Amino acid sequence: MTVASPPRILLIVGGGIAAYKALELIRLIRKAGLNVRVVLTKAAQEFVTPLSAGSLSGDKVYTDLFDLTDEAEMGHITLSRQAELVVVAPATAALMAKLATGLSDDLASTLLLATDKPVLMAPAMNVRMWHHAATQRNLETLRADGVAFVGPDEGDMACGEFGLGRMAEPEAIFAAIQEALKPKAQPLKGRHVLITAGPTFEPLDPVRGVTNRSSGKQGYAIAEAAVRAGAQVTLVSGPVNIPTPAGVERVDVETAQEMYDAVHSALPADVFIAVAAVGDWRAKEIARDKQKKGEDGELTITLVKNPDILASVGKHESLRPQLVVGFAAETRNVEVYGRTKLRTKGADVIMANDVSKDVFERDTTNMILIDESGPTNAKLLTKREAAEDLIRYIGTRIK
After folding, report:
1. Fold held by 8-181
2. pTM of the model
3. Annotated catalytic residue within 75, 156, 158, 159
4. pLDDT mean over 368-379
5. Are 44 and 13 contacting, i.e. CB atoms less than 8 angstroms apart?
6. Topology at the third CATH level for domain 192-397
7. What percent of the chain has pLDDT over 70?
8. Is 279 a catalytic residue?
9. Domain 8-181 and domain 192-397 have a common topology
10. Domain range list for the chain
């Protein structure tokens, strides 16, 4: 009888003062009976020596992409794939940027690009670096590519500033490692989940149009969570600037009518989740040329109703999905309007939230789930957490 060997972790230690915490992380991994190989970047070696990391890991420490002995004995491709999980702690802004853009100019970045295993990053950097638009773009790209994150935490920093950017504590990172190594339940395996996301854009003339402030973040987060739950996901998206999540079939549209047509073309589906902020009206006539200001500076536009996508699917006679989920973005009477929408749209579930406080631009949401049993209590969650909650709920409803 063959005894399975303990899981192996490939730990990449980036440069930064938080690198010293990697030694405690190695100790926790080894104490749990797991194997760990350590890669130190050049900058990391300013804070952690190969000797100390090797002593704690009980294995060779790797530092150089062009080490002929290492390449002859194993090779960086093999090294990147012999682990069950790749952990980057600390994950510097530079390491995040390299992986997000596909740059591989040292051993650490080459391993990250070559691996076919899950990647868990523990970011650590100055608060301003963390909030910089470039870092946030890279974060969104990496999440869309399936990279998991733990932290960063908020607190005092070595540079004297305060805010988000501290690396998560070794115990928290180790807990995330344990979670990542657990076999993942896939309650939606083999199911087709159809999702709409983002705003719609209704042209008035070749230049101008009517739209709304939806960022698409919630719909894209739900698409990611559905893929992780094993679903085949079709994402019908209005115009947004978000990378397509790995494993998702994306259909780009602009107008509500285009979204309506794309949704119905994608049916049948087991689950329909209408997250998009669809424009209720469109111009009755679209001007062929750019409209000029009149002498009085006024312009009269006649609007007509757009098709109701949620109701058209919720009340479909032959292709209605097993579960239909709608979203209600309201500025007042959130629960009341959510209940009304549940009744009138033919939906099974309504996710209602208050958008009176710029929720479209934020990464958090205050969502109430309303179904036939009544509403849940509102709770402040990140949009990724809300997505995970919704997919778990759907997993309990789908048969």
Report:
1. Rossmann fold (3.40.50)
2. 0.69
3. 159
4. 83
5. yes
6. Rossmann fold (3.40.50)
7. 93
8. no
9. yes
10. 8-181, 192-397
